[in-house]
Structures are given as C-alpha cells and as structure tokens.
Design goal:
By secondary structure, this protein is α+β, with helices and mostly antiparallel strands. The protein has a single domain, classed as Nucleoside Triphosphate Pyrophosphohydrolase (Alpha-Beta Complex), CATH 3.90.79. The chain is built from 2 helices and 7 strands; from the N terminus they run ββββαβββα.
C-alpha cells in the first residue's frame, strides 16, 4: 500500500485545496523510501505551491482510501499546517489552488479520500 503525506491548512474556516486534472485534493504526495514524513510534506508543498513556506503544527489523523488517478490503495497521513501567506500560486502540475469554504465544496469534484478527510475535519469542528 502506498503512503501519502498531506497537509491541511485551514484559515478563517476555509481549507486550502489544489486541483490536479479535474479533481480537487489536499496538498501533499507520496512518501519516498527512507524519507521522513515532515520532509515529504515540505518537499510536496514546495513542488505544488512553490511560493509558500509551511509550518507543520502536528499530526491530525490517518485515512485509508483509493487514489483518484491510479486507483490504488493508499494510507494518507494528515498533518496540520500553520497559517501561510497570500501567494498560493500553483506550480505547472497543479491547475489551480484556493481556499474554499465548506459550502463551496459541494460544487466541485473532490477525491473520495479528500471527502473523508473533510468530513472528519467538519465533525471535529475545524470546518
């Protein structure tokens, strides 16, 4: 099973999502062999959103799911990211990035594992 490290950044009850192909997901990516989780998250954020520096506040939860593109099983470890700057311009591999309110999420295509994470964040009072 693949392991992915994702970073949740919530500011003013809005969550940062990125768009790959036609699907919105939480920023992050696959961990490389012998890589620390924090190093993976920093590398993936730099690759996807190159103009921001992240501050990792701590671990949130782990989720099992299916990746939206390769359709393979994945274990997603989610960390909280502290407040970031205004320039969330995406890299070439990311089509868009934005902070979205809970009520905006029903109008976009979101991966199943991202939906699971968002539902947990809402249930836990973060969204």
């Amino acid at each position: 099973m693949k392991i992915e490290i994702d970073g949740v950044c919530i500011q003013e009850k809005r969550i940062l999502l990125v768009k790959k192909r036609d699907t919105w997901i939480i920023p992050g990516g696959k961990i490389q062999e012998s890589e620390e989780e924090i190093t993976c998250l920093q590398r993936e954020f730099k690759k996807e959103l190159p103009n921001i520096e992240i501050f990792i506040k701590g671990f949130y939860k782990s989720f099992n799911g299916i990746t939206p593109f390769s359709k393979s099983e994945v274990l997603v470890k989610v960390f909280f990211i502290g407040t970031i700057g205004d320039d969330i311009s995406p890299s070439a591999e990311i089509l868009d990035s934005k902070f979205l309110k809970k009520e905006e999420l029903e109008f976009i295509k979101i991966s199943d594992v991202t939906k699971d994470i968002l539902n947990n964040l809402e249930k836990d009072g973060y969204l």
